[in-house]
Design goal:
It comes from Litchfieldella qijiaojingensis. This is Cytochrome c. Pfam families: Fic (PF02661), Virulence_RhuM (PF13310). By secondary structure, the protein is of the alpha+beta class. The chain has helices at 34-41, 45-57, 63-66, 84-94, 97-143, 150-174, 192-208, 223-231, 244-258, 265-279, 294-306, 312-323, and strands spanning 9-14, 17-24, 29-32, 67-70, 79-83, 234-235, 238-239. The protein has a five-stranded antiparallel β-sheet. It has a two-stranded antiparallel ribbon with strand order 6-7. α5 (97-143) packs antiparallel against α6 (150-174) and α8 (223-231) packs antiparallel against α9 (244-258). It is rod-shaped and about 95 Å long. It starts with 8 loop residues before the first strand and ends with a helix.
């Protein structure tokens, strides 16, 4: 077998011997060159070569599945590496105590890495399960709000169903069965003046219908300017919120939670959220339908408003995954 993929290198030390060992947790084995086996067992390389040749010749092991060719520094051609089965077989043939100690060490190291890998996978599963439960708790809490009407209730059910589907997608991704949903990099935020102009038009329309007062979308200090500035900031030269989905989710969340206006924060947040999606060509999906319809948007806005600040990351991830295209 031939491969160019590097594998992690760890050091085996025994008395005065130190050998670089390539660890392959995917195949539950380790790899050594002939020169390294010579150092490990304290035998001439010619002896190691003879034993390896006989191991394959006598059919004790299959050469094709137990040898791989790797490129290493200082060599202009691939070098043969032999796995743990071959190393152990050579160790038995040279009757080396070093071979026994190495086998015990390799078995322990592989067991440790296997256990750590399982633990990490279990932690990811538990984290996803906790996030799903947190989302369901938020929905149950919001469902008890006096602001919730029948239409918004349907919207919450839709949100929960879509988020449950997202959870399954995320779980499959953690298990290596699904590629990560792509996010759209960038996303142009409105300037403070553009946001205020849009909200002024919304305010005029609502006041004309008797659905708002003069306090609607009135600035409380420099809250709006600070909020938009924070969303557009960079960290070490990279955008703090690098995707359309991330900016949109945080825009909706921060306007609702930070209360930059004297009144109408939820409606202002929803309006700026929709405006941002429209500005960046993400208001409609590939079928020409709204990514989030009016009922869903009202329910989502209420859900954010009712959520505990401790659940911020869950809410942000929920919004982002509702905007992501998993097709």
């Amino acid at each position: 077998m031939s491969t160019n993929n590097p594998t992690p290198i760890i050091i085996y030390e025994d008395a005065d011997t130190a050998v670089e060992v390539r660890l392959d947790t995917g195949r539950d084995t380790v790899w050594l060159r002939q020169e390294q086996m010579s150092e490990l067992f304290g035998r001439e390389r010619s002896v190691i070569t003879k034993h390896i040749r006989n191991i394959f010749k006598e059919g004790e092991l299959d050469e094709k599945s137990n040898v791989q060719n790797l490129h290493i520094a200082g060599s202009d051609r691939p070098v043969k590496f032999y796995n743990l089965d071959v190393i152990i077989s050579v160790g038995y043939r040279v009757k080396s105590q070093q071979g026994t100690r190495f086998r015990q060490w390799a078995t322990r190291i592989l067991r440790e890495h296997l256990t750590k890998g399982w633990t990490l996978n279990q932690q990811r599963f538990e984290a996803n399960a906790r996030e799903l439960e947190a989302a369901m708790t938020l929905v149950r809490k919001a469902a008890q709000s006096p602001e919730l009407d029948t239409s918004s209730g349907r919207g919450l059910v839709d949100i929960l169903a879509r988020y449950a589907q997202t959870f399954l997608l995320l779980q499959r991704y953690d298990e290596g069965l699904l590629t990560e949903p792509a996010a759209q990099a960038g996303g142009r935020l409105p300037s403070v003046d553009e946001a205020r102009a849009a909200l002024a038009q919304l305010k005029a329309d609502l006041m004309a219908r008797g659905e708002a007062t003069d306090l609607f979308a009135r600035d409380r200090g420099d809250g709006l300017a600070s909020l938009l500035g924070n969303l557009d900031q960079s960290v070490f030269g990279e955008p703090a919120y690098p995707s359309v989905e991330s900016k949109a989710a945080h825009l909706l969340y921060f306007v609702i939670k930070n209360h930059p206006f004297a009144d109408g924060n939820k409606r202002s947040a929803a309006y700026l959220f929709v405006g941002f999606l429209h500005r960046n060509g993400r208001l409609l999906n590939q079928q020409g339908e709204p990514v989030i319809n009016d009922i869903g948007l009202a329910a989502l806005t209420l859900l954010v408003a009712e959520s505990d600040p401790a659940n911020k990351e869950t809410m942000i991830r929920l919004i982002m995954n509702m905007l992501a295209d998993h097709e």
